[in-house]
Design a protein that fits this description.
This protein has helices spanning about 15-40, 40-50, 70-75, and strands spanning about 5, 55-60, 80-85, 100-105, 110-115. The chain is α+β, with helices and mostly antiparallel strands. It has one domain (about 5-115). It has a 5-stranded antiparallel β-sheet with strand order 1-5-4-3-2, with helices on one face. A hairpin with a 6-residue loop joins strand 4 and strand 5 (about 110-115). The N and C termini lie close together (about 5 Å).
Length: about 120
């Protein structure tokens, strides 16, 4: 399986101390969310089979499986992320990649993308 990760937005964090602290948690944990969700077949296949630009929530109580250690992070810091399949992003990926966009639910400027490959039968690689 090959996953390409590119880009993170640095805007979107507030100036209030509490918001700054929460913003740090989102920035700190978005990479783990991107890597693990991009590698889980249930999420990959679900995103690939459904509409572009529809945001699915990643939270401790999401419908699809989330590894226990990620659930602990999401619960412990009360974090929620969105993931969607997108056609365009500000970064370039190899031709044929299906691009997933991950963003903080609270700070939309905190964004990462992953490029995901599927075989000719639309199965995750």
């Amino acid at each position: 399986m090959v996953i390409m990760l590119i880009g993170i937005g640095n805007k979107g964090c507030g100036f209030v101390m509490k918001k700054k602290s929460r913003c740090k948690y989102y920035k700190k944990h978005i990479f783990d969310i991107v890597v693990d969700i991009s590698q889980l077949d249930c999420w990959r296949n679900h995103l690939h089979e459904n509409d572009y630009n529809y945001k699915y929530i990643i939270a401790h109580n999401s419908e699809l499986d989330i590894p226990k250690y990620l659930q602990n992070i999401l619960i412990g810091h009360n974090l929620k992320f969105y993931v969607s399949k997108v056609l365009d992003c500000p970064e370039s990926f190899d031709e044929g990649c299906v691009i997933f966009k991950f963003e903080s639910a609270e700070f939309p400027g905190i964004v990462r993308y992953s490029g995901n490959y599927f075989d000719d039968n639309q199965n995750a690689l």
